[in-house]
Design brief:
This is Auxin Efflux Carrier family protein. This protein is an all-alpha fold. It contains 13 helices and no strands.
Length: 323
């Protein structure tokens, strides 16, 4: 579907603006259904939030590692840090991750995908929004100082805007509906189940086409090559390595540990481009990472699977309950 979307946009068979409208509809109208559909019929008491903890610890540690950027003499170290960190830790857990997960493990265990995705929505997004807001205050104050004008302050209004962005995020709303429905043990009506299923399937196919159209209109490398390499290392090597480390330290069972490591080796999320564009920081880096990690993630996943298997790092207990 990615190839189809790429060809349709590249050869101008379908206008790129149409794909943008489709992408908006999928994100705002269908993502809620995709997330909720995978949670409403499950017993919330059976959920393990271990994947969320591993995902959150891994991404935070990766971001902290990237603070080494401040030790170098860039013109705008804060901007380089933000533009590097986001696409390196914002993982495409759902659109790419769900099919990959189901091709390796049982679909009955796929709730792990949505649990680990919480680390994106409850950690990465709020953290990025807050840091971006700080960055704009910092940059504006730098300009104000040069002009001899009064400096701005990080206000409660800014904090409120960040919280509102999180609360109105369609994926976050999907979690509220899914966990609420499951926790209250409400019945699933046939018509509602059908609607959720169709809209969920639409996301997986439609988003892949939109990714293809997105790749057709951007340069292959739209940032400095060194920043690109650092981002790739962070995405496919650094974050999975931290995931492996935390799974070992916390003594996570072998099957869940393997799943967490592989999930954190997936490509950068397309939403990282939307966030960076809206935040005005690092759109070129995000677009470059989306393109190349969509190609390189398979070798990365296979490499991590082989490494774990050959070294027998996480022996699987086949009798262990599904996450």
């Amino acid at each position: 579907m990615i190839a189809i979307g790429f060809c349709l946009a590249k050869f101008k068979i379908v206008n790129v603006d149409i794909f943008k409208k489709i992408n908006t509809f999928l994100f705002k109208g269908c993502f809620v259904c995709l997330v909720a559909n995978n949670l409403v019929t499950r017993d919330i008491s059976s959920f393990s939030f271990v994947p969320f903890v591993i995902g959150a610890l891994s991404l935070v540690t990766t971001i902290l590692t990237f603070t080494l950027i401040f030790a170098f003499k860039f013109d705008d170290r804060f901007e380089v840090f933000l533009s590097t960190a986001l696409p390196a830790v914002y993982v495409n857990y759902v659109i790419i991750g769900l099919p990959i997960f189901n091709s390796i493990w049982s679909e009955a265990e796929s709730s792990i995908v949505f649990i680990i995705t919480l680390s994106n929505d409850l950690v990465t997004v709020p953290l990025y929004l807050a840091l971006t807001a700080f960055y704009h205050v910092y940059r504006n104050n730098r300009d104000h100082r040069e002009k001899g004008e009064p400096e701005e302050k990080f206000s409660l209004r800014t904090c409120g805007g960040i919280l509102m962005s999180l609360a109105t995020n369609p994926i976050f709303i999907g979690y509220i509906i899914g966990f609420g429905w499951s926790g209250l043990k409400l019945p699933m009506f046939t018509f509602l189940d059908t609607i959720l299923k169709y809209l969920s399937d639409t996301v997986l196919a439609g988003s892949c086409m939109c990714v293809g159209s997105f790749l057709a209109e951007h340069s292959l490398i739209s940032c400095h090559w060194l920043q690109f390499v650092v981002c790739l290392v962070g995405r496919h090597i650094l974050m999975p390595s931290f995931s492996l480390l935390y799974c070992k330290l916390l003594k996570i069972d072998g099957r869940t540990a393997r799943q967490c490591v592989i999930m954190t080796a997936l490509p950068s999320a397309v939403a990282s481009y939307l966030l960076s564009t809206n935040g005005g920081v690092g759109a070129g880096v995000a677009s470059t990472m989306i393109f190349w990690t969509s190609i390189l993630f398979l070798p990365a996943v296979i490499g991590w699977l082989e490494l774990i298997e050959k070294l027998n790092i996480f022996p699987e207990n086949t009798d262990a309950p599904a996450v």
